[in-house]
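User: Fold both of these, please.

Assistant: Here is the first one.
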Amino acid sequence: MQGPVGKSFSEKNLAPRWYERFPRALPIGIFVLTMAVTLVSVFAIERAEHQRQIAQIDKAAQEITAGLERRANSNAAFLRSAAALFATRSSVEPALFASFVDQLRIEDSGAGVKGMGWAMRVAPGDIPMVERVMREGGARQFTIYSIASVPGHAGAAPSGGATRGGRGYAVPIMYLAPEDARNRRFIGFDMASDPVRRMAMDRAELLARPVASGLLHLVGDGHRGGPTGFIMVMPVFGSAHEGGKRVLRGFVFMPFEAAGFLRASLPADDSGEPLAVRLYDGQEAPGRLLASAHPEIHSGRVVRRGVELAGRHWGLVVEAAPSLVLSMLSMMTLLFGLLVATLLMALARLVGHQVAEDRLALAWFEQQSSIRDSLTRELNHRVKNTLANVLSIIALTRRRATDLDSFVESLEGRIRALSATHDLLTQSEWGTTPVGLVIRTELAPYAQGTERHVDIDGPDVQLAPNDALSLGLAIHELATNAAKYGALSVPGGRVSVRWELAGNATARICWEERGGPAIDPEVRRKRGFGTDLIEKIVAHELRNPVDLRFEPEGVRCTLVIPVRQRGNFAIRAGRKG
């Protein structure tokens, strides 16, 4: 019967789990899951970082927009002041214009302002008279010219230049400050001959307030080759009225270089990363770019805003500088996640190995418990069989003994035969025992000396423990009988013990005596204890009949015994390991 520990082990389901059958699945699964969580975290960090950068870019765009509006409004205020002053005078004299410009101090071109000018409305018929008066006043080279005479524009146009609303008149530049060599080339240019400038002047006259023009190239550097810019114009009306309508006397204006105007509006704090800033005239398009800062920057993180400046819609695009593929926090998170995933994978691998080893240990303990229970049952069976044999030997010996000494002597010999065979079984750990070893052990006392002859021969045949005990007892009885009455009792006697395989599961052992005393027929008819022991007890244990014959030449006995293979006793082999 199994013990409590063996029963507990046998009740456990020791079948390997799925993670034992696939030892790499669990570590790889843990690694993949940990890295998936890490990548999700990195994605969230990068998304938050992107939103933060967009917020910073939007803040910078707001500051740039505010700077543009502030500078546009301040310059528009200058133009309003000039228009209000010039409207109160019957004419704009050079001294009045110069005095006003000196007070404004607009000669600083750091903000993109190229100066301030006055352009007077002149009817076509008054052009020769205006040119004559200006030359007499000191401008000896003064000539009113149109856009068609500028390099890059083929064709000719009348000096009047433009036709507006069905009335033809020119708007030549009369004064332009600061008065330097560059600006002196602009004196006499008819701004009404340029469609861009004319459109701005028409809108300013209609709204009676400062209006910015569209994108243009400043005339002084060659109309198509100069820097891009724009002008801001403000109409000046006279005090007289014609039919209730205001009389346009001219325009006061300011030319701007777009790049300088944009630079002056950028935030003063340059401690952060540079930003790409692009200012467009209206919609964002390559041909409508007014100015840009850091045009080489392209990252895709863009903020677009619309700006209304002096009645003109501009487009502002702010783009952040390219950054690393991943932010520093994302890199640290990724590296930490990779480290944790690797450690968890290694830990899962170690735990998996430990679980497998523990399961093998449990299986080994269960096997050992089963072996122990089997050996206990086997030992109980062996002891019972041995005691039964001893009791049978005692009973038969007592019936055949004539006195106490003969009883003790016979019993002692048979007990010693059992003991010798037990010693063999103990040495083999109650495994298989060779036939030859059992026979030689029992015949050892009779095979000594030169006068006695015992021939033992046969193949390697293994016996089960019970069969070895029975064979040893039979050989002991035959040897004892031969020593007392048969071939071993005389010097010329000879005993031959030979065996051979009789089939796949049996072996035949032949005991033959020759050269001993002749056997009395009366002895052959009497059945002694040895005969009963061999034919009853041994035959019963070996599960095969025993052929015992008392022939005149000597005793002849044939035993058929079962043959056991070593594989039948694998449980003991397992116990040895």
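And the second sequence with its predicted structure:
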Amino acid sequence: MVVPYLTLLGKLCFGMPEAPVPSGTQCLEHDCFAVFWKPGPFAAASAACERHGGHLMTVRSTVAEDAIGLLLRNRGGRLWLGLRLPTPCTEPARRLRGFQWVTGDTRTDYDNWAPSGRLCGQLCVAVSRELSWEERRCEEPADGFLCEYNYPDSCPRLPLADGTSLTYRTPFGAAGGDFLALPPGSTAFVSPMGLQLLCEAAEGVTRWGRPEPGAWPCRLANGGCEGSCEELDGAPRCACPAGKKLGPDGRGCVSPCAGAPCQQHCVPDGEGFHCMCSEGYRLGPDGSSCQDVDDCVKVPEVCEQVCHNTEGGFECYCHSGYEMVEGHCMPVPNCSTGPCDHICEEVPGGYRCSCADDYVVDLKNPTRCVRQCEDGRCLAECDSTGVSCDCPEGFVTDVSDGVTFCVDIDECESNYCEHNCTNTLGSYLCHCQPGYVPVDINHCKPISPDDNDEYSGDSGSLLPIPSRVPPKAEHLHPGVLVGITMGVLCAVLVLLAVGYHLARRRCHPPSSIEYKCGSPREKEMGLQQVSASQKV
């Protein structure tokens, strides 16, 4: 009797409002709707719904509308809904006319407005007996209000046993025996057993239970047992399937490992268990804790040189002058062992190769150096006699004024490419014509239907093609080169003279004999005129 006394004292001394009792309730799996026939303004109705964790009802679908119809039961009057106007005036063109749900959103798949024009002021919405929505001033009283309560899960109604009756009571004050679902916190009174059950969420499951452990009579909801319920000598008892055991409440079934003291892994063993540890650990003397194993003291040793033990494992390192290569310690190369062609530089952990002037590092082998001919012409590398000279790949030797040079070979003149060719320094690139794709570095083939997804348009090789060095050309004597040049110039002069002479004979001035440049008929007439003049 302490709680009712405190409640009455609060009402008398502090003016606590009495919690209203709903006149009707409809509960689904996750939602409950209740009607309260208590006149008052919108603010008072909203506060009454929030007192038990709910809010004024949102009607977003025909399902909610059907629930309202069942709650009203053809009774007249207007009830507050959870819609209020946050803007100065209504907007009839919009679905909710500018109103907003008390949950702070405007999402809905349903509306049922009574005819009205544009209104302004502090407006809220009430539903009438015809289920239509009407705008009303929020400070004006309505005949009651509709509350909505949302829950993550619910308990099903209990099946009636022979000679028993059930009465339910929800957390928001609704009472009766015809609920289809009950929210968490609801109670069920079973007569004449004198049994009181509570809908509670435990271990992620919402079900009927009670503070006292153990089963109640098996004829009522299987005694609350998750497994089987049996009565021996009139005492109900729950039993669990193999591999599980009764939980602390004596009704639910849990794994034998539930609450086990194992530090890392628990393995069920019938109705018992045993603990296990991960690799790198061993089970402690207490049979539940796990202790780290020092892998660095194992025989044979796990590391070639230096071992560092870690929690649950180990790490291997190498001595100075060695480096880890695929799990093994290998000597670090230096300039005394490094294969650099030209210049070797000691760096931390190894060495670095570089090249002398006019040389660059070979991209295929960073320890080698190759000649650098950036502009297509550079000095050749010759021995002391000057007889044997070398050039980079793709270049050929040429002698000028007694000096041997390296000159780039134009590989495109050798017709290596089947279609189009681009010469590069020391190499060349082949390109395929539209409608063709490369077969190899030099050849192309027509695009087949299988190639359409991979190729389109002009195609070319992606990388420069290594040059094919043609046979080394023999050096021409400078006198021969001069003779060839003079012969070419003479031929050009002769051709120009012949062309000039022919042009003069072709088109002579009018004072000359005109028939040489006329048609056959004109030639005949000219000859006749000459003959006549001779006769005279």
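Residues 378-466 form one domain.
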